[in-house]
Design brief:
alpha/beta, Spore Coat Polysaccharide Biosynthesis Protein SpsA, Chain A, 10 helices, Glycosyltransferase 2-like domain-containing protein, signal, Nucleotide-diphossugar_trans
Length: 295
């Protein structure tokens, strides 16, 4: 009887250790990198975004903040103010994962391309976000989990849907000729992702898709690309490059998380994309047309 009493706690402890060991063994061995971009004039707005990203429920291995050496999208030279330089120093001290990456200005797509310059492992997951948005603590987890579920489904069915996971995707409806509409259900989207709420990519989407890595860095690599529009509207460009180079195989995959991925979005300022006159009709739509409205 005494031996049985002693054995019960020991067996229970052994069972718990076994479960923990299995959980560790089953945990995905993947690297998660959060990536965003900013430039002088916007740096003063970035603190809430970075602090919310450093406090995510899913461990983030690195936060890449791409800071272009020269901002080519404006007609004037931009330099960091003393306030912005001090803020970046403070954030680097407070957030160990933060890496400030000086790079080329690829337009709005710098939020992803900056990280692609640094991250080369096919299995690495890059989550892109905006610099003026505070995110829910489970935002990164929801996107990454959906991407890992996608990988699991692919192992069972090679023809299963594949593509970057996002919360918002817009598309043109063939039966409604006016405007662009948001997809309200989860799953594949025959449209373009909206990156403001967050998007998760596997590096392999670009490294394993012939031509994707080459084209995504060069807006003029295809004849006829409306360069200004595609540089300005990175959501269309990134969706379009993956769609075109994969022959329609890689498309945005919408996630419905059950919570708002965004806690707060700062008011727009003079550097916001919506300040561009006729930004949709003269810039976004020509880029969409080049990709056949993503069919």
């Amino acid at each position: 009887m005494q031996l049985r009493r002693l054995a019960t706690p020991a067996l229970f402890a052994a069972a718990i250790l076994c479960i923990l060991w299995l959980a560790i063994e089953a945990a995905p061995n993947r690297r998660v990198v959060v990536s965003l971009t900013t430039f002088p004039g916007r740096v003063v707005r970035i603190e809430a975004a970075l602090r919310s990203l450093s406090a995510q429920s899913l461990k983030v291995d690195r936060i890449v903040l791409s800071l272009p050496n020269d901002v080519l999208r404006f007609d004037r030279k931009l330099t960091l103010s003393n306030e912005e330089e001090k803020l970046l120093e403070t954030l680097q001290r407070d957030i160990p994962q933060l890496l400030i990456h000086k790079t080329t200005d690829y337009g709005s797509a710098t939020k992803l391309l900056g990280a692609l310059e640094l991250e080369h492992d096919d299995d690495t997951i890059i989550v892109t976000v905006d610099d003026d948005t505070e995110y829910h603590k489970h935002t990164v987890h929801a996107l990454v989990q959906a991407l890992e579920d996608q990988t699991l489904q692919l192992s069972k069915n090679p023809s299963a849907p594949i593509g970057p996971t996002c919360f918002v995707c817009q598309k043109k409806l063939w039966y409604w000729p006016i405007g662009i509409h948001r997809q309200r259900h989860s799953g594949p989207c025959n449209g373009f992702l909206n990156a403001f709420a967050g998007v998760a990519y596997k590096v392999s989407f670009f490294t394993k898709t012939e031509g994707a890595l080459k084209h995504v860095f060069d807006h003029s690599s295809w004849e006829g690309v409306p360069v200004k529009g595609c540089r300005l509207h990175d959501d269309v460009w990134l969706s379009g490059v993956l769609y075109k180079t994969s022959n329609g195989r890689i498309r945005p995959q919408v996630v419905i998380p059950g919570f708002s991925p965004i806690l707060n979005h700062l008011p727009y300022n003079e550097f916001s994309i919506n300040q561009v006159k006729k930004g949709e009709s003269e810039y976004r739509d020509p880029c969409l047309k080049f990709f056949n409205w993503l069919e």
